[in-house]
Amino acid sequence: MTISQTQGYEKTDLPKLPPIGDEKLLLQALTHRSYVNENPEAGENNERIEFLGDAVLDFLVGELVYKRYPQMSEAELSRLRAKLVDEKQLAKFAIQLDLGDLIRLGKGAIKEGGRQNPSLLSDTFEAIVGVYFLDSGN
Length: 138
What we know:
By secondary structure, this protein is mostly helical.
C-alpha cells in the first residue's frame, strides 16, 4: 500500500516513497484524534506513532549534523537540529507529500482548516516517519 492509495487517491505526482507493509499502521498514522472522536470504530489515532516518529527524526537529524559538521559545538548542533525538525519545516515536507489530503480528520477539524494546519501536517509527517521505523522491523 502506498500513501496515495490510503483513501482511494490515485495521484501519480506524489514522490516515490518506499511502500509501507503494515496498512493498519499507515492508516493509524493518518488518523487524527478528531476523526476517532467522531468515529470510535476507527481505532487508534496517530499520537503514539507521532511520538515515536519525533524521536526517530531527532536521532537521525542529530546523527546527520554531527557527522556533517564536525567543527560545530553541541550548542550549535542542537540549534541546527531544532531548525531542521521544527513544525514549519516538517509541514513543508507534509505538503510535498500531499499528506493534508490524506489525513483522516473530524468534521470540525476540516472546517477549521485542518488540512492546511502546519501543526497537524507536521504531526502527521512525524507519524509517517514512526510508521517507517516500525515497519522496518525495529
